[in-house]
Amino acid sequence: MTSDIDLGGPRKPTTRTREGGARSHTKSRNRANFIQRWALLGVWVVLIIVFSVIEPNTFLSMQNFQSLLGSQAILLLLTLGLMVPLTTGDFDLSIGSVLSLSAMVVAVLNAQHHWPVGLAVLVGIAIGLVVGLVNATLTVALRIDSLIATLGMGTVAAGITLWVSDSQTISGVSDALINAVVGFRLFGIPIEFYYGLIVCVALWYVFDHTSLGRRMLFTGRGRKVARLSGVNVSRIRFGALVTSGVLASVSGLLYAGTSGAANPGAGEPLLLPAFAAVFLGSTAISSGRFNPWGTFIAVYFLSSGITGLQLLGVSSFVQNLFYGGALIIAVVFAQLARRRHARNDED
Amino acid sequence: MRHVLSVEHASKHFGGVIALDDVSFDVQAGEVHALLGQNGSGKSTLIKCLSGYHSPEPGWRLTINGTKIERPLHPGEFRQLGMSFVHQDLGLVPSLSITENLRAGVIVAGGLSRIRWREQYRIAKALLDEFEIDIDPRDAVETLRPVDRALIALVRAVDELRRWKGSAGAAEGGVLFLDEVTAVLDRAGKNRVGALVRRIVADGAGVVVVSHDLKEMVDVANRITMLRDGSLIATVDAAEYENPSGIESLIELMTGNRRDNGAINVERRATPPGDRVVAAISDLTGSLARKFSAELHEGEVLAVTGLVGAGWEEIPALLFGARRAEAGTLTLDGETFDVARMSPGNAISHGIGLVPANRQEDGVVSDLSVRANVSLPVLSTFMAKGRLVAREERARIRAVLDGYRVVPPDPELEIQALSGGNQQKAVVAKWLNIKPRLLLLQDPTQGVDVSARERIQDIVWRAARAGMAVLYASANYEEVAAVADRVIVVSDGVITTEIVGADITEDAVTAACLRGAPSGLEEVA
Ligand SMILES: Nc1ncnc2c1ncn2[C@@H]1O[C@H](COP(=O)(O)OP(=O)(O)O)[C@@H](O)[C@H]1O
Ligand SMILES: [Mg+2]
To answer: What ipTM is given for this predicted complex?
Structure first.
């Protein structure tokens, strides 16, 4: 294609004139926006109260909370990574497999080949970097749909995981890594939670307080507008896919450190929860945008719900119901909100 | 001769606007009939009454292939009556093959019965062979050149008419309507389509063509019906205009030789632009424009215009790097750039701004705030110590919105909450806010109401006089006459006319565009 721009010329009349209107709606719209911003947080609090009343001894216990915050840090980090390319308009379906692969490589190098754990960790991160680079090259330079490119790369990564592990769970990861991930506690919460928190704060800073964040937003929402405004959209999309690859591999390290072992199928079941949480998170805080704090709340809202239900004795199929349902409901909500805006603009 | 189509007393009102006023005309079997008139003269409205898209006012009478009708047509009814329509967008599905496009009607009607692909290919091939179109019917339409796409759309319409003939048992007849189908084609393409049109009428059909290319119409048509402001002016024999002064006479017939609208820009022209050359474009070549060269002076509004598809419309996008140029240079305050290697980011950093034609696609992200939309190209100026200073951004953008009278001047509203005119003002403000040395505009008032249109013209004109150079590309000749200090007319990709100062009137611009190749007016080497 030689052109990225419509040259104009005749087309069906699109004139829409509407003055007034905008202001009379502001008040009710402000209230609606407020409710939407904080609804997810509110529902999370209600959920905690309900489970605490029903299961005061188990759910309400401090220990339960602390372990919940710690163990979900893996999903949090994976989800925050996914949020980055989604913001710039690309999918990354390879993150689950990258998690498995990086955890497995660390376990194999460290436990089986006795590499120093530091070196094994670097190789684990390098794997996320490489997968991210390949994803980005396929998507941005070769213009392959990100859905297809990352689906393919994810499957390749899953294959390599099975190959290097011989389809076995590999245990015996060095205590140094375990200590670095769950060895310390701050306010009773394992240190890995704070890793997730740091990434969350960093992304919030970039998204909300830098011009890079704004350019990422425009790249995802209106690629042509961004390009015509001087944004280097290729570089931004490239960077976003590399970021999600690296963060997925870091969450693989957390996984290896948390369990002291690597399981070849560790990451794939987290792909859907990650999508559910990002989309659900986009209905909160900065409503209508993928945003770190909404994502943070969504991850813990979903896992609290599941933990509570499991304590009630509901069997494990509930997890699928919960995550799948949340994804669909989140997307429906986002769509309805968009339509409400559109309707307001027509009258 | 027998007519295949006759329309009597067709009128159409839109609220208070009379778009079509008691128009009558007829088409003979075997005739190519051109429908001419300036933009807004009612050609498309007339055609849409015949396709059943619009309901004409009561009192019209339509005789089509022997059937008399005095009521509005139902949508889709035109098929049973033996009419077929091709519009500028051609109505082809680019990703499907030529065969699938050509045979769409038959294939879709087949329901669950097996499609005999080999037979469909054979039929498609036979059709292409018959009209001497040398393309493989298995190719996807998107791989075709524009001219071949137009030919395919025409062949499909002809095929539909034949099927109608078969089912109606008619020996001849059928009417094909072509509304600005050749607008984006070059001269050779237009000739190719013209040749196909002549073949179509050979077996007794009638063809009605709309085009602004007068040469093309005189060449291909038997008769010409001229509309002006919704009224019928005359139906004439095309042969009478096949002489050197024929085109001039047609232009006169079309514009009615009004000579009273030259005063629009008098106040503005009282303050002439400067002499210093700010930007020099040299040998710019794109996919339509060839070797375009021009100089822009400090404070000057230079308009580039022409018929749709003539090549002028790509010039802003080429200069900005939004569309890949084949060759050309741009010299800005003494610094020379290779336009073929320009990118938007590059252009902006050298002080070039582009207001794009399609606001929805290229101009704004409609569900983001006015502030975010307007500040995007200057975001880095709001960064301090690695942080975007939101307060400063908000204050600055509010001042910009106030300055350009964007209503309401609330930077936090989603930009889609603004009227089209105010959105466009915000887009113009966004680009003026980068303080460009050269501002490029592409049809900047498209889909904008009249008051906002005047406001935008005024903003652009004032900004120019404040010291920048402005290149204004538009096919709205009235607007061009109102805003430009100088007008360059492009026909078939090359500059044919330059109009300066007090000679710029809507009619002069219109005439120069219609005339195409220079005859009479000074030629620009
Ligand atoms: N749907 C519509 N609503 C209101 N006015 C219309 C509509 N369609 C066309 N018009 C007006 O009717 C007149 C004739 O337009 P049109 O038939 O499109 O002209 P042409 O095809 O000759 O350029 C113009 O003044 C135009 O603004
Ligand atoms: Mg028209």
So the answer is: 0.84
